[in-house]
Amino acid sequence: MGDLTDRRSAVITGAAQGLGAEIAFRLAAEGFSIALLDLQKEGLDHTKEKIESRFGETAVKAIPVDLSGEELVADAFREIDAEFGRIDVLVNTAGGSGTVQVRDIEDLSSQTWRTVLDNNVTSTFLCCKYAVPIMRRNGYGRIVNFSSAVAHGLSGPSGTIGARLPYAASKAAINGFTKQLAKDVTRSGITVNAVSPGLILPEEGRVRTVFDSLPDADQAAIRAAIPAGRTGTAQEIASAVAYLVSEDAGFTSGTILSVDGAAS
Ligand SMILES: NC(=O)c1ccc[n+]([C@@H]2O[C@H](COP(=O)([O-])OP(=O)(O)OC[C@H]3O[C@@H](n4cnc5c(N)ncnc54)[C@H](O)[C@@H]3O)[C@@H](O)[C@H]2O)c1
């Protein structure tokens, strides 16, 4: 299998902001060439510029794409393969509960249901579908999906911003998808794991903006409800991902790694 210098291409989805951007910085610091995918072109350009200014030698490619569309995903992976000639790491960070807050099942439209499942589950499935054949060529790959503590359900007013019912369902689906795919591809030298964050506040991004807009008392109540008494940092998530994509993690597959301050 050779050493890491033989395989240094990482694809990170959801990289326009938040956790995906922080994971991209971390993997760039570890010497990977980086492909950034997201719906939001402006955010992608911002992440790309930050990587280039911090790590001048790093090859970075940014592709704006809706990852719920199969043809678009197929094209994006063809483009990455043409540029880097290999994919060693895929981190499926894209997703979220959406921007429309829905708390009651009676208010949940089937359109919102489908959109949230598409953004989380379909995007993860499609990226794996087009990355795995490229990984199989080298008999090596590391895939990290993004679940959530919300897969176990949440009660009360705090937590997930958007439509939490399809969000919980989508993250539970990602757990099952991760465990099954891990078994299906293990003999090809590919590991598949998921990180399951609790409430994480990146330095910038949508979740940080929404949290900072809450009254101080609400912020304090949310922190107090977390057993660790605090929210997590994007660096703590990036460190978990860095382990799962390392060569040392070759016998770790099918794991759902909670990074949530003992919340789940
Ligand atoms: N931040 C947290 O507290 C937290 C907690 C648990 C799980 N998570 C999960 O971690 C991941 C990252 O969270 P974040 O806080 O950085 O969220 P975020 O909303 O800041 O970033 C998510 C990114 O995914 C992109 N995206 C969504 N749907 C897409 C699609 N169809 N095609 C392409 N891009 C798409 C968005 O444009 C956005 O840039 C998500 O999967 C989220 O569900 C986050």
Highest CATH level, the class: Alpha Beta
The global form is globular
CATH homology superfamily = NAD(P)-binding Rossmann-like Domain
* Cα-based radius of gyration, to the nearest Å: 18 Å
For the terminal residues, how far apart are their CA atoms? 37 Å
What's the count of strands?
9
The chain-level mean pLDDT equals 94
What would you say the CATH architecture is? 3-Layer(aba) Sandwich
Number of helices: 8
Topology order in helix (H) and strand (E) letters: EHEHEHEHEHEEHHEHE
How do the helices and strands line up, and which of them pair or pack?
Blueprint: E1 9-13, H1 18-29, E2 33-38, H2 41-54, E3 60-64, H3 70-84, E4 89-92, H4 110-138, E5 141-146, H5 164-185, E6 190-197, E7 200-201, H6 206-212, H7 216-225, E8 232-233, H8 234-244, E9 256-259
Helix pairs in contact: 1-2, 1-8, 3-4, 4-5
Bound molecules: nicotinamide-adenine-dinucleotide.
Structural account:
- InterPro entries: NAD(P)-bd_dom_sf (IPR036291), Sc_DH/Rdtase_CS (IPR020904), SDR_fam (IPR002347).
- Pfam families: adh_short_C2.
- Belongs to the short-chain dehydrogenases/reductases (SDR) family.
- The protein is an alpha/beta fold.
- It has a single domain, classed as NAD(P)-binding Rossmann-like Domain (Rossmann fold).
- It is built from 8 helices and 9 strands.
- The chain has a 7-stranded parallel sheet with strand order 3-2-1-4-5-6-9, sandwiched between helices.
- Strand 2, helix 2 and strand 3 form a beta-alpha-beta unit.
- Helix 1 packs parallel to helix 2, helix 3 packs parallel to helix 4 and helix 4 packs parallel to helix 5.
- The longest helix is centred in the middle third of the chain and has 29 residues.
- The N and C termini lie far apart (37 Å).
- The relative contact order is 0.15.
- The N terminus is likely disordered.
- It binds nicotinamide-adenine-dinucleotide (NAD).
